[in-house]
Each structure stands twice: as structure tokens, then as C-alpha cells.
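Continuing from the previous page...

OK, I double-checked the sequence for CCA-adding enzyme against my notes and this is the correct one:
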Amino acid sequence: MDVHEVIERVLARVKPGEGERKLVDSITRELIKIAEEEIEEFGLDVRPVLVGSIAKDTYLSGDHDVDLFLAFPIDVPLKEVREEGFRLARMIGERLEGYEIGYAEHPYVRARYRGFHVDIVPCYDVKDWREVRTAVDRSILHTRWVIENLGGRNDEVRLLKRFFKGLRAYGSEAYVRGFSGYLAEILVIHYGSFLDVLEKADLMLKQKIIDPARWLRREPEIAMKTVGREIKEDNPLIVLDPVDPRRNVAANLSWERFALFYFGAMRFLKSPSEEFFFPRTAVGDYRAELRRKGTHLVTLLFDPPGLVDDVLLPQIEKSARGIARALELEGFTVLGFDYGGDYIFIEVGELSRPAVRVKRGPHFFTEMGRRFYEKNERTWVEGKDLIAEKPQEPYIVDVIEEILERGNVALGKNVREAIRRADILVDFVPRRLEESAYLFLSREQFRV
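Thanks. Re-ran it with the corrected sequence; updated C-alpha cells here:
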């Protein structure tokens, strides 16, 4: 199939139709009106602002997350923005169809309204990067910059977003570490079109630095500091935020997700197909994968604390890495690990080890040798060295419990206690995790 024919067919599926547009416009107007009424009721000097893909008209058909920001004047103290902004957000949420509280840099409200997800977030009404005081303040600047620079290429962004989704490389969240929607918009603006972005995949990696706003000329000292920091972090891309030279828009992008895009672009340009945008769901049996590989799956299930994913998941990743490393030091063969919001997977080569280990000690005729001899029950001599036989837990579950109890393993501080109380399963997962276990064991999620 010709590449342009593929693009036309994909656009027909991802571009919102007239009826959908009218619905989105109607609901966003209603939300703004509700916000304005509550602001007036509170007597606050706050401006309700739509940001994100709906505000920029780069949203995909059926993807209706609304980002409603409550913009306070920059001279309002931060404590007041957090407290009054959160109180206002909750009052707006109470007029919708149920809400819950989310926690990031400061609390915000996640609500539902007529089938739409609505995030209500207090922020500062900033005019440029020098006024930014919280992480969310840039969203207003991002929205404005994209609207001013997109130049009618909205559908090109939609194609790129859907392409990233099809490759499992979309989303900058901690559990994905892929391309964000804002990064997709920047790439289209910078390179020109969906196909241009794909054709520049190799150049992108070699060039490393993308600077759409020319910060390296306008603010060289600040921009170079950002570049230096990101090079040290060994990130695949450095995309200087067009609205803030201190920030790399691609900071969360992992090498694995960039590789999915790199090879996906190569394959698509060679053999265009709708399947790149709408792949078949990977179906497989994790038990069959274990039999095929002759390995074992250890799963830790725990009740996580109530933190947003961007705070919670890095701590779970640290914990998973720490446990995997500790098992390697205990003599087990660790083939990999994965994690989610309430679980850790560790693939190992064996479930048991010998019930004893042999420890080589000092020369038998030294003071240290005498202490070694007195401390150990079963000892013998090899040449000058004392050797001891030390008992150890043979079964991996007992070893993990011992590791966690001893506390000599790196765990995320907010999940430490939850993981220590985890249930440990071997070669079995609950039904809800079967697909995740298959994707992990097959490495399907990063297959190129």
C-alpha cells in the first residue's frame, strides 16, 4: 500500500469528526463556565485556562482528557496558591461527577464529567520562563507556543502520536518513559511533517541536540548548562524546551523507547502499513514462556502508598533493581526485572541454591585465622588457607524474605515497608497480571 494511502486511512481513524469536535467544544465551555462561577463565588483573581492537546487541537479521536488549569497572579504567595487553589479545585470537582485527589508538586483534583477525565490544577499565570515557580506553570506557555507555531499541521501531530502509540513508545510517564505529546508537537514543528520526523530518526540520534527556539544563541550559558547536564545523564535526545532553556523536553525518554521509534520508522518507510499505528494485541501465555526458556518468575505483590505514578514508580524501580542485585550477590542467576504500581517481577535461572556455601578465610597461623577458626564450625585447610562451610537458605523465597528483613538492600523510601510485607509468588501471577507477565518474559514490549 502506498504511504500516502496509509496516512489517509489512519487519519480517518484518528482525526475527530465534526460531531466529536462539537461535543468536546461544548463540554470544555461548560467546564470553563463552572470554573468561572466558582472563582467568582470565592472572590479570587484567578483565570481558568485550558491547556494540553484539546486546547492545542492535537488530540486523537476518542482521547478526551481535559486539562483545566487555575492560573493565579504571580505575586500571590506559593502557600496561598497551593491552599486556595486546591480548595477551589475541590469545589469545582464537587460540581462534576465525582473526583479524587492527586498529589504531585502540590495537590490537584482528578474529576469525571460526561465521560471525560478532567484534571483541575492550580498554577501561576506566567508570561515567560523566568516567572516559572512550579513544574506545572510551563503548561500554559507550552500550549501558547504550540498554537503559535503549529501552522495548521495538527493532523501531522495526530499521525505521529498514533505512530508512537502503535510502537508502545508514547507517554513520558515514569512507567513508560516514551515520547510525550508535547515532544511530538515540537518534532513536527521542527522538522515539518510526520514523514519528515520519521526520515530524521537517524539524524536525530546523531545530532543529539534539538533547539527549536535557538536558546543556544539567545541564552548560551543557561542552555549549555542544560545540555551538559543531559549529556552526563546519557539521555538519547536533548530537546531544549522552546519556552524554557533550563529544561530538556525529552529528559524522560529512555533508550529502549527511542529504539522502538528508531527501528519502527525504518520499517514503516520501507513497508508502510496501518499495523504500525494499530498493531495486533500481543497474546501469549506466560507459563509457555517459562517452559520455553526454562526459567522461573518470582513476583512480589504489595499494597503501594497513595502517591502519583511519577513519584511512586521510580521508587518501585529502585526497589526492583535493589532486590535483583541482592539476589545476584546471593548466587542466583537474574535474567531481568520489571515492575508496576503494585508488583515486581524478577526472572531467575533457578529457584534453589546449595544449602551451604564455602568461604575462604585467612592463613591458619595468623590472629585473624584463629578468630575465623573459632567463629566457624566446619573448617578445613587448603594450603595455608582456612576454609569454612557456611549454612544458607536454599530456597529463593526464603532468601528474599531474609534480604528484606536484614534491610541491606536498596529500596525506595516510601515503598520500603510495603515491599517488606509483600506476598511472594513463584511461577504464578494473578489473572490481572498475566498479560504483563507475558510481555515481560517474552520481552515483547521492547521487541524491534
